[in-house]
UniProtKB/TrEMBL annotation:
One of its GO terms (biological process) is glycine decarboxylation via glycine cleavage system. The keyword Cell inner membrane does not apply. The glycine cleavage system catalyzes the degradation of glycine. The H protein shuttles the methylamine group of glycine from the P protein to the T protein. One of its GO terms (cellular component) is cytosol. The lineage of its organism: Bacteria, Pseudomonadati, Bacteroidota, Flavobacteriia, Flavobacteriales. This is Glycine cleavage system H protein. The gene is gcvH. It comes from the Bacteria. The modification N6-lipoyllysine is found at residue 63.
Length: 126
């Protein structure tokens, strides 16, 4: 299982890559493996300011639909539109081409509350 050490994580299985005041968000390798084949990613919150842990979209797999929770308060500034036609990128490249949204971080102090790679491994029992 791939859990890159340079990323931050949430207990809800999202990963976060911080670049200045922009954070790229996706779901972890563990999450995509648990969900199975992803057939649809829906994000209709671009341009909206959402609070930490608010639902920003959904990911649909063959057998289930799961909410996606925002790891940090901020404005959704971009959706990975490639996923509209190629949602299986979330399965094949969850930390690269399978990213979901980019947010403009409103409160950088929340970053301290995110999990490290080791902390996330504890959550999933790895």
């Amino acid at each position: 299982m791939n859990i890159p050490s340079e990323l931050k994580y949430t207990k809800d299985h999202e990963w976060i890559k911080i670049d200045g005041d922009i954070a790229t968000v996706g779901i972890t390798d563990f999450a995509q493996g648990e969900l199975g084949d992803i057939v649809y990613v829906e994000v209709e919150t671009v341009g909206e300011e959402l609070d930490q842990e608010e639902v920003f979209g959904t990911v649909e797999a063959v057998k289930t639909v799961s909410d996606l929770f925002l790891p940090l308060t901020g404005e959704i500034v971009e959706f990975n539109e490639t996923l509209e036609g190629d949602p299986e990128l979330v399965n094949s490249d969850p930390y690269g081409a399978g990213w979901m949204v980019k947010i403009k971080i409103a409160d950088t102090s929340q970053i301290d509350g995110l999990l490290s790679a080791d902390g996330y491994k504890e959550v999933i029992g790895a």
